[in-house]
Amino acid sequence: MNPTIELLKSHRSIRKFQDRKIPRELFEELIRAGQSAATSSHVQAYSIIHVVNPQNRETLAELSGGQRYVAECSDFLVFCADMKRATDAAERAGAEVVRGMTEQLLVASIDAALVAQNVATAAESAGLGLCYIGGIRNNPAKVSELLRLPDHVYPVFGMCLGYPDQNPEVKPRLPLTSILKEDYYQDEQDAELVAEFDATMHTYYQARSGGNKDTNWSEQLKPLFTSKLRPHMRDFLRGKGFEMK
Fold first, then answer.
1. Considering the chain, what percentage of its residues have pLDDT values greater than 70?
2. In angstroms, rounded to a whole number, what is the distance separating the alpha carbons of residues 122 and 139?
3. Half-sphere exposure at residue 76, Cβ-oriented, CA atoms within 13 angstroms
4. Residues forming beta bridges with residue 161, ordered by sequence position
5. Comparing C-alpha atoms, which of 32, 3, 240, 38 is closest to residue 141?
6. Of 1, 31, 165, 230, which cross-links 5 as Cys (Cβ 3.0–4.6 Å)?
């Protein structure tokens, strides 16, 4: 395997960081690497908020569910799906712009995810660690108010960046045969493959450093699908102009 593939396969979420700042020049290079990600029709429908203010970092840590590393990492980013810049530009160019389409929401969300993953890979190639923060969507209205996000822009997730102060094991992934389908969707073997993966994850949780857990993949999924997960998101998105027409 080449070094890039090995790097991608070695990803871990880092939640404990050294008290050490990322040099500004390196930080900006990470963002430029992010900008080189694929983007639908060259729309570049994302904005990245670099949260520097310490009090705002503390607030975001609490809004994200009390995740202290949001405040403690070297740099914290909020990746936003942004349809405002592109639609405003098209309007200034003379278009009769239609806003609020579901496809616009999808394009902007996917663009934000792609640019973030480029930033993540660039960061890890430079010896940095990171952790995605989906908890930003726990309180998206308050996050938007704090970051002064206008209509047609919403916070998709955050990202902690910094120099790692821990060395966690790589978490196993589903078997390739479970997620890679040939020609058609096939799930005849899913129950068997998931059972095997549950055994793998149980072994991982029992053996990993930093404490063991008596659980597996399927068990950890149960809370996600036995309650309404972030039911506020639909009304929030519509209120931000993503009407999903």
1. 100
2. 29
3. 27
4. 75, 130
5. 240
6. 1
Q: How many CA atoms lie within 13 A of 80 on its CB side?
A: 25
How much is the pLDDT for 212? Answer: 77
For 155, phi then psi, to 5°, come to: -80, 120
Q: What global pTM score does this model have?
A: 0.96
Cα–Cα dist 130/137, whole Å? 18
Expressed in angstroms, the distance from the first to the final Cα of the chain is 45
Token code pair at residue 102: 């579901």
Annotated domain spans of the chain:
3-168, 171-227
CATH topology of domain 3-168: NADH Oxidase (3.40.109)
**Mind giving me the DSSP string for 43-99?**
---EEEEEE--HHHHHHHHHHTTS-THHHHSSEEEEEEEE-HHHHHHHHHTT-----
DSSP H helical ranges for 94-158: 102-125, 140-147
Model confidence at 174: pLDDT above 90: yes
CA–centroid distance for 100 within its chain: 23
CA distance linking residue 108 with residue 178, whole number of Å? 29
Q: Which residues contact 142 (CB under 8 A, 6 or more apart)?
A: 63
Bridge-based pairing of strands 75-82 and 153-162 is antiparallel
Instruction: Produce one character per residue of 54-83: b if its CB has 16 or more CB atoms within 10 Å, e if not.
Output: eeebebbbbbbeebebbbbbbbbbbbbbbb
Q: What is the spatial distance between Cα 183 and Cα 206, in angstroms, rounded to a whole number? A: 37
Whole-number average pLDDT of the chain: 96
User: 10 Å Cβ neighbour count for 190?
Assistant: 12
